[in-house]
């Protein structure tokens, strides 16, 4: 017989019909500082708001009287097949959101036939994830450190563990100013202060899982502690240049993708230097506030690449229709981070699986209502980006970035 708590959790996940519903569950089930770490962005969070508002400005142009009985949504990105034009983005310190962490994310992604990108700042090693989810389609995300031999060791381990693609994040020369984390006093790992002890009374299950499972630490870092910004500024190499892409190419036999591209000239230069793919991204709005909006700059970057490399997009995606809009405007696929982390916080592996079910259902329904049966049929005519402002679609429970 299932415990009553487990049954309630399963029922709550089944009732969640949108990613926003999962977000609301996540907000109730995790400490404020942990939820804000996922939910927040840099500065006054203008970049994140604009990214979501850009998807709100999308106008679909459906064709009718088409046979849409079956949608074939699968796609191939850099020799990796996915059941949707979707990958799960790399996120740091995932076991802080839920004690099942990256293993739960990787397992849910593998079950759904969707690739998962493990982060350098993950809480599970490349070897442990590969062993726990041997049927997964694994990519590995890399931050280049000041200690270059350690970076080299890490990418060699990823290659030996069977990771097919290396994703180099290029927009973190220094840490963004994530003000929610500053106001919450978030440290890695969370410290037992008077404030966090008081929070235990509100979220006892989260704290019990944290304190009774394996220690919460970065799997690839020995030098942790303090805030995320402290670690980024202490360990990441701000002197990385285009020449380092050549160094990576010499030491990595698989595909290389650059994440955090926001300018067409950069995209052109990176592809000329040997990048197999780029991810148009402003880091989920978590680095430079008021940076360009990925969906708006996507067509320019696609034009600059001229089909010589894969182009992916992230930031702001909260609905399967957003995936449709990005692919229609030139992306080969998209990545989501917050969307599945809300599911993870709401219900572990089952919550991640629910987030993927929601996105898949929304994607399929949007395609059918557009009169299309394959992502390859999508063009800009199907999803136009209207000029002007749009009202941001956000739930009434959104915490204010300026909340103390």
Summarize the structure.
This protein is an alpha/beta fold.
Task: Give your account of this protein's structure.
The protein has 404 residues and is α/β, with parallel strands linked by helices. Helices cover 44% and strands 12% of the residues. It is built from 16 helices and twelve strands. It has an eight-stranded parallel beta sheet with strand order 4-11-10-9-8-7-6-5. A two-stranded antiparallel ribbon has the order 1-12. Helix 2 packs antiparallel against helix 16, helix 5 packs parallel to helix 16 and helix 13 packs across helix 14. It is globular and about 60 Å long. The termini are far apart. The C terminus is likely disordered.
Characteristic key phrases:
alpha/beta; two-stranded antiparallel sheet; 44% helix; 12 strands; 16 helices; eight-stranded parallel beta sheet; globular; single chain; 404 residues; disordered C terminus
């Amino acid at each position: 017989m299932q415990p009553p708590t487990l049954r309630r959790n399963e029922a709550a996940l089944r009732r969640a019909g949108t990613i926003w519903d999962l977000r609301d569950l996540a907000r109730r089930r995790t400490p404020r500082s942990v939820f804000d770490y996922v939910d927040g962005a840099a500065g006054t969070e203008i970049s994140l708001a604009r990214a979501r508002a850009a998807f709100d400005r999308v106008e679909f142009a459906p064709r009718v009287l088409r046979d849409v009985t079956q949608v074939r949504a699968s796609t191939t990105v850099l020799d990796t097949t996915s059941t949707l034009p979707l990958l799960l983005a790399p996120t740091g310190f995932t076991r802080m959101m839920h004690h099942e962490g990256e293993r739960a994310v990787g397992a849910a992604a593998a079950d759904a036939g969707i690739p998962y990108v493990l982060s350098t700042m993950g809480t599970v090693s490349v070897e442990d994830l590969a062993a726990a989810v041997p049927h997964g389609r694994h990519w590995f995300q890399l931050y280049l450190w000041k200690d270059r031999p350690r970076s080299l060791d890490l990418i060699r381990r990823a290659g030996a563990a069977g990771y097919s693609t290396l994703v180099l994040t290029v927009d973190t020369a220094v840490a963004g100013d994530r003000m929610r984390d500053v106001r919450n006093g978030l440290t890695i790992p969370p410290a037992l202060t008077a404030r966090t002890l008081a929070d235990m009374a509100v979220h006892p299950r989260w704290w019990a899982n944290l304190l009774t499972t394996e220690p919460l630490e970065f799997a690839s870092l020995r030098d942790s502690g303090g805030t995320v910004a402290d670690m980024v500024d202490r360990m990441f190499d701000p002197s990385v240049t285009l020449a380092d892409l050549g160094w990576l190419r010499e030491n990595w036999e698989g595909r290389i993708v650059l994440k955090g591209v926001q300018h067409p000239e950069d995209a052109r230069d990176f592809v000329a230097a040997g990048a197999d793919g780029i991810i148009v991204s402003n880091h989920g709005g978590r680095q430079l506030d008021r940076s360009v909006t990925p969906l708006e700059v996507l067509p320019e970057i696609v034009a600059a690449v001229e089909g010589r490399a894969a182009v992916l997009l992230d930031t702001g995606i909260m609905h399967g229709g957003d995936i449709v809009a990005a692919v229609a405007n030139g992306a080969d696929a998209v990545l989501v981070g917050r969307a599945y982390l809300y599911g993870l916080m709401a219900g572990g592996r089952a919550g991640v699986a629910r987030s993927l079910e929601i996105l898949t259902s929304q994607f399929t329904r949007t395609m059918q209502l557009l009169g299309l049966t394959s992502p390859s049929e999508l063009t800009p005519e199907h999803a136009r980006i209207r000029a002007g402002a749009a009202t941001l679609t956000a739930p009434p429970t959104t915490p204010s970035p300026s909340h103390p």
